[in-house]
Write a structure and sequence with these properties.
cell wall, disulfide bond, Beta-glucanase/XTH, Jelly Rolls, EC 2.4.1.207, 14 strands, 14-stranded antiparallel beta sheet, about 40% strand, about 280 residues, single chain, mainly beta, transferase
């Protein structure tokens, strides 16, 4: 069984770090991890454990002002090989006054290109906001401040991340070639160093090779043996399906804030849209 991780030590207890990462504490005693980006280096942290299904939540405060060209991430990946699995929440910076774009994506057995992108409806640099990924055997759910904005469903005959344990990552990097207006607006380095802050991380997840107790408090990582029956988790994440109200929230996000849906991009898929597009 995984040991409890105290609120003031989550970063170094659960993650390895890369690049300029600093820590501090907020007024409530929560540890804050700050990733820095300048001309010489980005930064990140990655989990010491690998997970097979789980609920992962973190609070983030993004770069204020002109963040064009920067990319801040919270994601899971099985690696960087051609057949890898990955679940992404990527925050694509923008010019001052323009909305930051949240890019969600799913890769399965090396097959990606499944982006849904949303303009955030608040200033993500003014305060912390909560971002959640729920990954279970039947769907992948993306949430912002508790609101479901996307559900990627599993179909028996299509690729889905279900067998490769994944590591959790948070990164801040230079995405000038891609992030803002398809690379038209690069980073203005006069604003460096850029800082993204993370706090209040929690994982209720199946750790590859471990055992799986029933549920957890917010700073436990529960575990189950990879390939075994792992049915219980906090708030029922393992069997989580969207109810009617949550599907309503998805439609609200799509109607009001979606800026890109791969299922509407016939130019990108001249041989026909991916099969799941006609089923959702």
């Amino acid at each position: 069984m995984a040991a409890a991780v105290s609120a003031d030590s989550w970063l170094y207890e659960q993650f390895n770090t890369d690049g300029p990462v600093r820590t501090d504490y907020d007024a409530s005693g929560q540890q804050v991890a700050m990733l820095n980006l300048d001309r010489t280096s980005g930064a990140g942290f990655n989990s010491k454990e690998q997970y097979l299904f789980g609920e992962f939540t973190i609070q983030m405060k993004l770069i204020p002002g002109n963040s064009a060209g920067t990319v801040s991430c919270f994601y899971l990946t099985s690696g960087d090989d051609d057949g890898h699995d990955e679940i992404d929440m990527e925050f694509m910076g923008n010019e001052t006054g323009q909305p930051v774009v949240l890019n969600t994506n799913v890769w399965a057995s090396g097959d990606g290109k499944k982006e849904h992108q949303f303009n955030l409806w608040f200033d993500p640099s003014a305060d912390y906001h909560t971002y959640t990924i729920i990954w279970n055997p039947t769907n992948i759910i993306f949430k912002v401040d508790g609101n479901v904005i996307r559900c990627f469903k599993r179909y028996a005959d299509l690729a889905y991340p279900s067998s490769k344990p994944m590591t959790l990552h948070a990164t801040l990097w230079d995405g000038s070639y891609w992030a803002t207006e398809k690379g038209k607006i690069p980073i203005d380095w006069s604003g460096a160093p850029f800082v993204v802050s993370y706090k209040s991380y929690s994982a209720d997840a199946c750790v590859s090779g471990g055992s799986c107790p029933a549920g957890s408090d917010s700073f436990y990582a529960t575990a189950c043996v990879s390939g075994s029956a792992c049915h219980l988790g906090r708030d029922g994440w393992m069997s989580k399906q969207l109810d009617a109200a949550e599907w309503g929230t998805v439609r609200w996000a799509e109607r009001s804030y979606m800026r890109y849906n791969y299922c509407n991009d016939g130019w990108r898929f001249p041989q026909g849209l991916p099969a799941e597009c006609s089923r959702n």
